[in-house]
Amino acid sequence: MKEVFADIITIGDEILYGQILDTNSQWISQQLDDIGVKVRRKYSISDQSEIIREAVDESLGKVQLVFVTGGLGPTKDDLTKKALSDYFEMPLELNISALEDVESIFKKFGKPLTEINRQQAFLPKGSTKITNDCGTAPGMWFDIDRKVVVSMPGVPFEMKAMMTKSILPKIKKRFQLPIIIHKVIRTIGIGESWLAEEIARWEDALPAHLALAYLPGRSQVKLRLTGISDDRELLELEMNAQISNLLPQIQQYVYGFGDLEIEDAIGELLKQKNLTIATAESCTGGYLSHKLTSVPGSSEYYYGSVIAYHNSIKERELGVSAKTLEKHGAVSEETAKEMAEGIRKKMKVDIGISTTGIAGPDGGTEEKPVGTVWMAISFGGKLKTQKIQSPGTRLLNIEYSTVKALDFIRQTLNEA
């Protein structure tokens, strides 16, 4: 089984200046992965003919497929077509089909075809025109020495339409592609290095055509198992068997698979157990309620929130004792408990969860440094608490604390 590799080159000084974000290469990578093409490298280069030629030449020395986006417009700074014409020694000539396409577009808008736009119909002799249904610049397909270079407009919606309708089907016919399958296991509450130690023996025993990648995030790690084969059905069976062998080792940290987010997993658990929840937030400032309500259908189980940022709101809306605040402070286990109890009773829900802490950058002390967060859950006649120490900036502390709170809910639901 021979793998097919590709490079993606995006052209434009505006990308290098940081004026626009290159979303094309990300999207192209996803489409190629779906059909079994592995992207080896993607990079952005300047609008200069020499640099374009050098980039294409370097990529063709390493991969079978090169995708180029950008620089196909009608203005003087659009140099891709001429650069590729020179590189492949294919002089530009009028392509009648391309001319008809351009004329049709201008006729549709009731405008005369200008000479500068007529130049769009000149393509390198020997290249294959790729119709652009959404714009005036056609794409180009170069098939040279069993390798392919594809040049497309940089405008995302033009490029995507061209890829979907013409280029991807053409690639599938042109190359014998392997099957590539990804399986993602989503974990929470364990760091990357600790997780790697837990599953080291399993990972070491994987066959050569299966590979594991660790994708860490905020207190979460995604495990991506990738398999390559010529037989999809057998590969699916083999990968599922490997995952079944792995899960008993890390089940306590696994909350889902694929694209499932932790807030989605919590929503499913709440619906399964027919439970309701409300939030009392101080340091997270509503971010926890935002994550819970970002799930479609969350109104089935989520009732509401009190953002008790000021101590007076903790007292008035949640019933936190003034003595508790005076003796222990807002950032304390005792205050978190009373906040959780208060929101559960106020909203008349099954579960109340609270967060109170010091997000920073100011407000920390030696006893309670920035990033100190207490959270509590009131559920089933019991109060559970958890203290964490967030490690970063104000925004990172808010995000990290929210993820930890979501995992706290998950653990509580799994124990119920």
Structural write-up:
The structure is a single chain. Strands 2-1-3-8-7-6 form a six-stranded mixed sheet, with helices on both faces. It has a five-stranded mixed sheet with strand order 14-13-15-16-17, sandwiched between helices. It folds into three domains: 171 residues, 3-Layer(aba) Sandwich (Molybdenum Cofactor Biosythetic Enzyme, Chain A), CATH 3.40.980; 79 residues, Alpha-Beta Plaits; 154 residues, CinA-like (Maf protein, Alpha-Beta Complex). The chain is an alpha/beta fold. The protein is 42% helix and 26% strand. It contains 16 helices and 17 strands. Helix 2 packs parallel to helix 7, helix 3 crosses helix 4 and helix 11 packs parallel to helix 16.
Which percent bin holds the helix content?
40-55%
CATH architecture of the largest domain: 3-Layer(aba) Sandwich
Beta fraction of the residues? 25-35%
CATH superfamily of the largest domain: MoaB/Mog-like domain
Q: Count of DSSP E strands? A: 17
CATH class group of the largest domain:
Alpha Beta
> In this structure, how is the largest beta sheet organized?
6 strands, mixed
Rg, rounded, reads 28 Å
Estimate the mean pLDDT confidence. Answer: 95
> How many helical stretches?
16
Cα shape: elongated
End-to-end distance: 49 Å
Q: What is the name of the CATH topology of the largest domain?
A: Molybdenum Cofactor Biosythetic Enzyme, Chain A
Number of domains: 3
Low-confidence stretches: none
Structural class: alpha/beta
Strand order of the largest sheet: 2-1-3-8-7-6
Family: Belongs to the CinA family.
Domain MoaB/Mog: 7-174
Pfam families: CinA, CinA_KH, MoCF_biosynth
Protein name: CinA-like protein
